């Protein structure tokens, strides 16, 4: 049984396969070629947190492949509190062919994957966001022809989005650097996992955003306060203030540098309107690529 829980579980060849399939599906979609790879299949979507991109791109993607998506709000399903994770997983495996879950705790995904009998796709956890990472890499590939050899400077929190992108870059030969305030970089468990399962040079970390973006092909940012960290918001606003992606920071990167953001953006915090609405920003192309990357994942797991 294959799952998509973390990009680190995939080989470089599997990642490259998913990216080329995503590009093929994107082209087929643009040419309005009907697809039937998920006919008769049902994909359950269980979300403990809000979403626009992940939910809608999965629902649309499943429909475009001829299947049916079923949205199940987390507070109705009650993972681990209305019933045990194992009882949930064993029950729902009778009804759906795959599950997409957005959860607070990554261990919830592991528990369901271990006890259910259908593929589990991580639609964001506190640990990682692999579907986002795939769409990010697809976007870098489209913008630069190849991700290999490019430098991505992530300016912000060493969070779920940063971890997945760092791993994807590492596995595909792109350089990933992180700029964040002291104490907000990658934690020891991630560094150990990276060393063991990605290898090579570990991602460089900077406390100076200007040093980090020097020569970068891509500047990437995400919200400073992720879902579930709301109590830390005031403290984070202060600490991350010097890490805003603005025109001054962008001017220090490579001349044709592109700006990516997983969205939703908190304009005026981690990124300015000027950059979001400027010519370097490819965040909406990136958001569109969620659809195609996830269709490739669904076919990879279900076909
Ligand atoms: N980037 C992302 O996952 O967006 P949503 O939270 O809207 O799904
Ligand atoms: N790091 C953010 C990503 C949102 C798509 C969060 O977890 O809230």
From TrEMBL:
Broad class of the protein's primary localization: cytoplasm
NCBIfam families (UniProt xref): orni_carb_tr, PRK00779.1
Source domain of life: Bacteria
Pfam family, one: OTCace
Binding site for L-ornithine: 160, 222, 226-227
Protein name, entry field: Ornithine carbamoyltransferase
InterPro entries: Asp/Orn_carbamoyltranf_P-bd (IPR006132), Asp/Orn_carbamoylTrfase (IPR006130), Asp/Orn_carbamoylTrfase_sf (IPR036901), Asp_carbamoyltransf_Asp/Orn-bd (IPR006131), Orn/put_carbamltrans (IPR002292), OTCase_ArgI (IPR024904)
Transmembrane segments: none
Keyword Transferase: yes
Coiled coil: none
EC number from the UniProt entry: 2.1.3.3
Keyword flag Cytoplasm: yes
Aspartate/ornithine carbamoyltransferase carbamoyl-P binding domain segment(s): 2-142
Similarity comment: family membership: Belongs to the aspartate/ornithine carbamoyltransferase superfamily. OTCase family.
Binding site for carbamoyl phosphate: 102, 129-132, 262-263, 290
Catalytic activity: carbamoyl phosphate + L-ornithine = L-citrulline + phosphate + H(+)
Compartment(s): Cytoplasm
A GO molecular function held by the record: ornithine carbamoyltransferase activity
Xref: HAMAP family: OTCase
């Amino acid at each position: 049984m294959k799952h998509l829980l973390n990009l680190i579980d995939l080989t470089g060849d599997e990642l490259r396969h998913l990216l080329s399939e995503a590009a093929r599906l994107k082209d087929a979609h643009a040419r309005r070629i009907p697809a039937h790879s998920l006919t008769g299949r049902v994909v359950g979507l269980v979300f403990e947190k809000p979403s626009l991109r992940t939910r809608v791109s999965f629902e649309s993607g499943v429909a475009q492949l001829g299947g049916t998506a079923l949205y199940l709000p987390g507070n109705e399903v009650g993972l681990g509190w209305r019933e045990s994770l194992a009882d949930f997983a064993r029950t729902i495996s009778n009804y759906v062919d795959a599950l997409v879950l957005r959860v607070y705790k990554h261990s919830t995904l592991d528990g369901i994957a271990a006890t259910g009998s259908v593929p589990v796709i991580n639609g964001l956890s506190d640990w990682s966001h692999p579907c986002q990472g795939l769409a990010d890499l697809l976007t870098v590939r489209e913008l630069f022809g190849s991700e290999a050899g490019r430098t991505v400077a992530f300016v912000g929190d060493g969070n779920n989005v940063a971890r997945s992108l760092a791993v994807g870059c590492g596995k595909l030969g792109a350089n990933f650097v992180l700029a964040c305030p002291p104490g907000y970089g990658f934690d020891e468990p991630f560094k150990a996992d990276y060393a063991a399962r990605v290898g090579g040079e570990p991602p460089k970390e900077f406390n100076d955003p200007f040093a980090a973006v020097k020569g970068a092909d891509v500047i990437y940012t995400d919200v400073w306060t992720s879902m579930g960290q709301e109590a830390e918001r005031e403290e984070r606003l202060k600490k991350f203030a010097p890490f805003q992606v603005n025109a001054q920071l962008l001017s220090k990167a490579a001349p044709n540098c592109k700006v990516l953001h997983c969205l939703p953006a908190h304009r005026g915090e981690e990124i300015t309107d000027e950059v979001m609405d400027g010519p370097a920003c490819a965040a909406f192309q990136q958001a569109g690529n969620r659809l195609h990357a996830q269709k490739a994942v669904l076919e990879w797991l279900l076909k």
